[in-house]
Amino acid sequence: MTLDPVPDRNLALELVRVTEAAAIAASKYVGRGDKNTADGAAVDAMRAVLGAISMDGIVVIGEGEKDDAPMLYNGERIGDGRPPLVDIAVDPIDGTTLTAKGRSGALAVIALSERGTMFNPGPCVYMEKLAVGPLGRGVVDLSATPTENLKALAKRLGKDITELGVVILDRPRHDDLVAEVREVGARVLSISDGDVAGAIATAWPNSGADILFGIGGTPEGVIAAAALKGLGGEIQGRLWPRDESERAQAVAEGYNLDKILSTDDLVAGDNAFFSATAITDGDFLRGVRFHDFGATTQSIVVRSRSGTVRLVETIHRHDKLADFSTAGI
User: Fold this and answer.
1) Using an 8 Å Cβ cutoff, are 213 and 250 in contact?
2) Which residues contact 179 (CB under 8 A, 6 or more apart)?
3) Each residue of 40-94: pLDDT tens digit?
4) Coil, strand or helix: which one is 246?
5) Are the C-beta atoms of residues 221 and 123 closer than 8 Å to each other?
6) Which residues, listed in sequence order, are joined to residue 297 by a DSSP beta bridge?
7) DSSP of 14-83
């Protein structure tokens, strides 16, 4: 029998075990003020389960370089070594500060696609982003002004601009952006962290979010692209070097800093997988709950090829929770 190197099964249903493990491990540190320990616990749990999945995976976007991240580092091989051949992007906690402070919106997330299809941001940690849901796809453009995009989106959605919800990270660099959005009359939905969740919210029914603007993490942009492919939305990005040194390095490595990256540039093809499990309560998922029987998690599982979006609620028994370190979830 010849094994197909292309994913032909719904790996997202296996990936949900990965994000569940990370979310439960991180949830024990919610509100304890220690984001590094929470992140470390999520990384350990995530990698343990990933190692048991039948795939030949390479971490394209991980926790950093090998010397700084002993596990889930960029370039690490993941899985049992058998096909399919895949690229992997991980964010064990999207919202480490949210977790540490006990705030809503923290997720454990992972994305996967066919080998060679996932964008590697190289030295660029940040990118300028624009994300919309299915109805907004094709009517917005990162090269246009926020005002122009809001007017176009309002027309497409059949809404007044004053009814639009605009997700923006609460950062000083966005002061002018926030002022422009307010001036045109749209509602600013400010988030302190977690722009993967913010991007997904634009494509989620009744979330109240219609569009995401602003500069956020490039890795999170790639992960969000995998999710939005399955949700039918769109994300555009443009690399945003933090300083001249990072700019020079990106140019030296061949990156076009003026190019607007489409959803397909960030994750090529149409066989992407995404899974997210809530650590704390959010707009569309409930965070980890501990109870007499054990723990309950809620997750979203997306596959772009089939267009399926599943909400998964799982009960984990007390006597099995300790098995995360051996991929027993």
Assistant:
1) no
2) none
3) 999 999 999 998 899 999 999 988 776 566 688 889 999 888 899 999 999 999 9
4) helix
5) no
6) 314
7) HHHHHHHHHHHHHHTTTTSS-HHHHHHHHHHHHHHHHTTSSSEEEEEE-SS-TTT-SSS-TT-EESSSPS
Side-chain-side CA neighbours of 309 within 13 Å: the count stands at 14
Predicted model pTM: 0.90
Place of tokens 């061949």: 254
E-strand ranges in the chain read 56-61, 77-78, 85-94, 107-114, 126-132, 165-169, 187-191, 211-217, 234-239, 273-278, 289-290, 294-303, 308-317
Rounded to 10 degrees, what is the CA torsion of 218, 300, 115, 198? Answer: -10
- Nearest alpha-carbon partner for 168 in 212, 124, 112: 212
CA angle at 75 for the pair 309 and 259, rounded to the nearest 5°: 70
35-50 vs 12-27: helix crossing angle, rounded to 10: 150
Q: Which amino acid is at 224?
A: A
Please write the tens of the pLDDT for every residue from 190-218. Answer: 999 988 999 999 999 889 999 999 999 99
Q: What angle do CA 258, 116, 49 make, to 5 degrees?
A: 115
Around Cβ 249, how many Cβ atoms within 10 Å?
Answer: 15
